């Protein structure tokens, strides 16, 4: 069984690839960061492809070159926190392009391969931000709402390919670690019902489950991996 993980050079994508490999998958990492992609692929001992998911031509030719694909993890994503009054239109266009259009392109060109698989499945990576109405996120939360809508639409449109999403809460990765330094990290952990911020593996295991045979009757679901934060916070 062969899976492709976008944004697999670090963070949640890397942890997902690691988990899938442990579960017997053959994994290809796709990322736009050449150096960390090479390092990640060599550490994990897997294939890799260097590309930006918004680059229509390279994404199309990459998927056309793959002999086989059973699972797609649309994980690559970016965020540029900005208030609407001071936001840069080009920054936020970029957020929508990577998070929404990039996911759409990878899915579109992966489809012929996934249709040839007996167990084709997609996991999209949303965010708890899609539900929490936090201020100052620019278009990030809106981009993830679009991902959740597309997850449900594709679960209907692309069946029997299963399409689900995970919505991570506060997870420490290379991309977010600055937010958790010192006291800020402790304050954030206290806001989570389970009393800790998440690790990449918390999300990776859920993605591995959604791609596994154990989830063969699960489709169209958005699973929050947030230590209970979406349900509320113990702090007032
Ligand atoms: N870490 C969190 O707390 C958290 C919470 C909710 C959702 N998420 C989502 O999880 C996903 C991964 O987050 P992370 O924390 O691991 O981020 P990260 O910044 O640590 O890693 C993201 C990876 O994606 C790659 N990438 C970004 N844009 C790309 C593009 N256009 N083409 C190819 N590769 C690209 C980067 O090079 C990087 O290797 C994102 O979609 C993010 O929105 C993360």
In short:
The protein is of the alpha/beta class and 236 residues long. The chain has helices at 11-22, 34-44, 56-65, 89-116, 129-132, 140-157, 182-191, 200-211, and strands at residues 2-6, 26-31, 47-50, 71-74, 121-125, 162-168, 222-225. The termini are far apart.
Word description of this protein:
The protein has helices at 11-22, 34-44, 56-65, 89-116, 129-132, 140-157, 182-191, 200-211, and strands spanning 2-6, 26-31, 47-50, 71-74, 121-125, 162-168, 222-225. It is an alpha/beta fold and 236 residues long. The protein has a single domain (2-226), classed as NAD(P)-binding Rossmann-like Domain (Rossmann fold), CATH 3.40.50. The chain has a seven-stranded parallel beta sheet, with helices on both faces. Helix 2 (34-44) links the parallel strand 2 and strand 3 (47-50). It is globular. Bound molecules: nicotinamide-adenine-dinucleotide.
Shape verdict: globular
Span from first to last CA? 46 Å
Query: Which fold name corresponds to the CATH topology?
Result: Rossmann fold
Identify the strand order in the major beta sheet: 3-2-1-4-5-6-7
H-E string? EHEHEHEHEHHEHHE
Helical stretch tally: 8
User: How many domains, as an integer?
Assistant: 1
Q: Provide the CATH architecture.
A: 3-Layer(aba) Sandwich
Count of extended strands:
7
Give me the CATH superfamily: NAD(P)-binding Rossmann-like Domain
CATH class: Alpha Beta
What percentage of residues falls in helices of 4 or more residues?
40-55%
